[in-house]
Amino acid sequence: MTRADTATKRAADVSAMFDEVSPRYDLINDVLTLGNDRLWRIATTRAVAPRKGMRILDLAAGTGTSSAALAAEGAEVVAADFSPGMLAQGRKRHAGNPLLEFVEADATALPFEDDSFDAATISYGLRNVSDPRRALAEMHRVVKPGGRVVIAEFSTPPSALVRAPYAFYGRHLLPRIAGLINRDAAEAYRYLNESIEAWPAQQELASWLREAGFERVGYRNLTFGIVALHRGFVGRPLAPAEATPAAEKPAAAKKPAAAKQPAAPKKPAAPKQPAAAKKPAAAKQPAAAKQPAAKKPAAAKTPAPKQPASRPPASAQESGAEQ
Ligand SMILES: C[S@@+](CC[C@H](N)C(=O)[O-])C[C@H]1O[C@@H](n2cnc3c(N)ncnc32)[C@H](O)[C@@H]1O
């Protein structure tokens, strides 16, 4: 059994590990989470708010369980993953679903055009990516202005009363139960637990989202914080009228300029074009007014009549927990 190293998460090892658990992956999930995974998926689907006509990227989609829930609402879903074994299971399971397309892709170098999705989501995948910040930057690059990302990931229960028994379960029971269902899976589920323990808590992941350029970042705990649902929006470009009197604008409110940022760490080079030049990180940039027009050419990417990718929910809470 391949067992990825939690410190390096070498792509070949992670991919091989998921290839090997793929045949019984969904069953093991159901058992290990006592069925809670189904409730978490419902919450994730609601947060993405899929609608007919939307094109949604489900990243690290695995066997496509979360993708199918999005497609069930009428959205066209690209289920991307780098494990051929998980993709093969997904294609078999969802054969004949015209709204679901499985694509082999690495989250850190997506083979998609800029602004080509109305929304992107990743469920229990970001933690497995060797460079999760780069994956976030890639999600920011491929989602249209106004579109959202939703991340479902294991997290840190705020209460010590939950943390202690949960840690015991993860370290001692989880690999054994997984091993009973699939003898070879015990090692993979030891990795799963280690990767959860090493994963940043809610606030830190929220700060990664902001660094990647997402706006109105927030999160909500599910099942006492065993899972957290993070979301953020891609900022819209300035309307020409807003863009002119640079000095009069409140700096933080508008889509800022990219020029101040070191391009590489924030927006890694995308296959098509350097993402940093197009959608700068909003939260970090006080100098929004300096050069808005140069960064996001309105004509090329976001003409005025462009349809918004999605509407933020009225109840969306910014920069913090939604309980
Ligand atoms: C725990 S599974 C989650 C699958 C699915 N999203 C779900 O909710 O059931 C994690 C998935 O992440 C994928 N993965 C990990 N790193 C990846 C990367 N860099 N690019 C694409 N997929 C990746 C694995 O192949 C695996 O299918």
List keywords for this structure.
alpha/beta; Rossmann fold; eight-stranded mixed beta sheet; 38% helix; 16% strand
From the alpha carbons, calculate the radius of gyration and give it in angstroms: 20 Å
The name of the CATH architecture of the largest domain is: 3-Layer(aba) Sandwich
Structure ligands: S-adenosylmethionine
Largest sheet: 8 strands, mixed
What does this structure look like?
- This protein has helices at residues 11-21, 25-32, 36-48, 65-71, 84-93, 132-142, 160-181, 185-198, 202-211, 240-243, 263-266, 292-295, 298-301; strands at residues 55-59, 76-81, 100-104, 117-123, 143-154, 215-222, 227-233, 320-322.
- With 323 residues, the chain is α/β, with parallel strands linked by helices.
- It has an 8-stranded mixed β-sheet, with helices on both faces.
- Helix 2 (25-32) packs antiparallel against helix 7 (160-181) and helix 7 packs antiparallel against helix 8.
- The model is unreliable at 246-277, 281-308 and 310-323 (pLDDT under 50).
- Bound molecules: S-adenosylmethionine.
- The site of S-adenosylmethionine has 21 residues, from helix 1 and helix 4.
Quick overview:
This protein is of the alpha/beta class.
Write the layout of secondary structure elements.
Layout: H1 11-21, H2 25-32, H3 36-48, E1 55-59, H4 65-71, E2 76-81, H5 84-93, E3 100-104, E4 117-123, H6 132-142, E5 143-154, H7 160-181, H8 185-198, H9 202-211, E6 215-222, E7 227-233, H10 240-243, H11 263-266, H12 292-295, H13 298-301, E8 320-322
Parallel strand pairs: 1-2, 1-4, 2-3, 4-5, 6-8
Antiparallel strand pairs: 5-7, 6-7
Helix pairs in contact: 2-7, 7-8
The protein binds S-adenosylmethionine.
